[in-house]
Amino acid sequence: MTLLGRHGVTNAEVIEAKLAEQLRDSWRARYRRALERERKEAGRLDYEWHAFSFETYPALSGEAAVDAYRERRRPVIVMTAHARETLVAARCATAPTFEPRGPRSPLPPDLLVFPEDLSWTFAMTHEAGWLGPYFATA
Predict the structure, then answer these.
(1) More confident residue, 56 or 52
(2) pLDDT for 98-122, tens place per residue?
(3) Which helix (H) or strand (E) holds 80?
(4) Alpha helices in 46-100 (DSSP H)
(5) With left for phi above 0 and alpha for psi between -120 and 50, is residue 62 left, alpha or beta?
(6) What residues does each domain of the chain span?
(7) Are 9 and 15 in contact (CB under 8 A)?
(8) Beta strand pairing call for 89-92 and 76-80
(9) How far apart are the first and last CA of the chain?
């Protein structure tokens, strides 16, 4: 099972590593730039979604974020969002669903979901319920 498959992402076409890095760089330029300007230690942050948890980029959070995300169904990119995890990205024909977890469920994945034009992004966090998930528009 692939890394994204373990996170419930199925029917996905894996993107080669160089393009995945370019997509991550584009995502960072769009959504994380303010965090990097404000916090010099941003390069040491483990999670891409800290751009939203530190409130350097405006975003919906919690159920409001999930509701906004559920309205999106066009093809998307799904990408790992943890610096210590291997960068993996894949194209999905439709946005994956992330179901609420039960009390004995494993931690949710740290994933970014966005269309290729980066017009919006959904950040699923392992801290969901406390920090995130987040939904932002460009």
Answers:
(1) 52
(2) 665 544 455 567 889 999 999 999 9
(3) strand 76-80
(4) 50-53, 63-70
(5) left
(6) 3-95+107-137
(7) no
(8) antiparallel
(9) 33
Q: In what order do the strands lie in the sheet with 134-137?
A: 12-14, 89-92, 76-80, 111-114, 120-124, 134-137, 60-61
DSSP string, 22-52: HHHHHHIIIIIHHHHHH-GGGGG-SBTTHHH
Answer whether 75's CB lies under 8 Å from 92's CB: yes
pTM over 0.70: yes
Beta pairing class for 76-80 and 120-124: unpaired
CA 63 vs. chain centroid, Å, equals 16
DSSP-assigned letter for residue 82: B
